[in-house]
Design a protein that fits this description.
single chain; Alpha-Beta Plaits; 4 strands; about 130 residues; elongated; about 30% strand; four-stranded mixed sheet; alpha+beta
Length: about 130
């Protein structure tokens, strides 16, 4: 059985919380790097106002299996997550959800520009 709310739970605390642009950028870099298999320093981030929400733009390479490995085993593409286009489309939603969930910021969209590829061997970027 629960009793009445405690005094400190009944009313919100005064003050405000702010997340700096640098903190938002760090979270976006980490989310994008995780989603597309690269390291956070590989990710460039920019923000824009989109009618009161934040539009996130990312420019980064994407990890792919070595092409010689794909020739020997075409299934490596599927094991890596599929075609670059498909992985990027899925990554948009994952990045938007992760950044919004961790920061509480209202993101309206995520734009991704793939700038190159990073060859991966056994899940590691080379």
């Amino acid at each position: 059985m629960t009793g009445p709310p405690r005094q400190d739970e009944a009313r919100p605390l005064a003050g405000h919380n702010r997340i700096s642009a640098q903190a938002l950028t760090s979270v976006a870099k980490a989310a994008a790097a995780e989603a597309l298999g690269v390291t956070p320093p590989d990710v460039r981030v920019s923000w824009a106002d989109d009618g009161g929400s934040l539009a996130l733009s990312l420019a980064l390479p994407i990890s792919i299996p070595p092409l010689t490995a794909v020739v020997r085993d075409p299934g490596r593409v599927g094991a890596q997550g599929g075609a670059i286009w498909d992985r990027t489309v899925r990554a948009k939603r994952a990045i938007l959800d992760r950044v919004s969930g961790l920061t509480g910021s209202a993101l309206s969209r995520v734009n991704i520009r793939i700038t190159g590829v990073r060859s991966t061997v056994g899940g590691r970027v080379r």
